[in-house]
Amino acid sequence: MSRKIDPNSETAPDQDDVLQFAPVAEAVAILLKPHAEVVIHDLKTQTIAYIANNISRRDVGGSSLADLKDIGSLGADVVRPYRKTNFDGRQLKSITAVLRNGTGEPYGLLCINFDIAPIEAARDALNLLAAFQGAGAQPSALFHADWQETVNAAIADFLGERGLAASALAKEDHATLVERLEQEGYFSIRNLVPYLARLLGISRATVYKHLREARQKKLLTAED
């Protein structure tokens, strides 16, 4: 995903182009690989502009879930470490930097998401404390509309109850998970079906099939 600038071009690079930070994202991701991803958000389009070492299975061009008008409420250009839940239930330690242009206007975000599972495994095995001091709740200015985070947490609870990873779920588990999400009202969220299909590694048609069965089961239960 690297990009080159023509040295003979008479046009100066756009100083508000967040992709100028792509080499920084790649450098951090390479240093911490395979445990960290770096995501660059474009606040002008409110979309994800770049992902280095993608561990969250998000797509470039997808919603950044960050609203430009809320940046002023953050109170700092570096948002202190906070917890996130990845789609497969892994806990991430994240930090966000606000990118500003020469006039001080915010135009992008650079987020580092670090997988702390190896640290927590070492803690459990050696009775050590994971280095997670200073982590707090998610900053609402960044994640107030992050339905994916809510869905990830619900899936993490489901996986935790069964002691399974997302990749280990069987067909019956997929159906049970869809039924639970339907019971809790998650399928009222737009675009949940393609998101869930991508996370589980199954087709949208399969998700819709499980959803129809879950709704039929709920209807029969209500009639009884």
Short summary:
The protein has 224 residues and is of the alpha+beta class. It has 7 helices and 5 strands; from the N terminus they run αβββββαααααα. The protein has 2 domains: 1-145, 2-Layer Sandwich (Beta-Lactamase), CATH 3.30.450; 146-224.
Please describe what this structure looks like:
There is one protein chain. Strands 2-1-5-4-3 form a five-stranded antiparallel beta sheet. The chain has 224 residues and is an alpha+beta fold. The protein is globular. The protein has two domains: 1-145, 2-Layer Sandwich (Beta-Lactamase), CATH 3.30.450.20; 146-224. It is 37% helix and 18% strand. The protein has helices at 22-32, 117-126, 140-143, 147-162, 171-183, 192-200, 204-223, and strands at 36-42, 47-52, 78-85, 91-100, 106-115. The longest helix is centred in the last third of the chain and has 20 residues, at 204-223.
Keywords:
37% helix; 5-stranded antiparallel beta sheet; 2 domains; alpha+beta; Beta-Lactamase; 224 residues; globular; 18% strand
CATH topology of the largest domain: Beta-Lactamase
Average pLDDT taken over every residue = 80
Q: Please bin the fraction of helical residues.
A: 25-40%
Number of β-strand runs: 5
- In the CATH hierarchy, what is the class of the largest domain? Alpha Beta
Q: Order of helices and strands, N to C?
A: HEEEEEHHHHHH
The second-level CATH architecture of the largest domain is: 2-Layer Sandwich
Main sheet summary: 5 strands, antiparallel
Poorly predicted regions: 1-13, 128-135, 140-144
Count of helix runs: 7
**What share of the residues does DSSP label as strand, in percent?**
15-25%
Distance between the termini: 56 Å
Shape: globular
The CATH homologous superfamily of the largest domain:
PAS domain
What structural category do the secondary elements indicate?
Answer: alpha+beta
The Cα radius of gyration reads 20 Å
Provide the number of structural domains. Answer: 2
**Strand order across the largest sheet:** 2-1-5-4-3
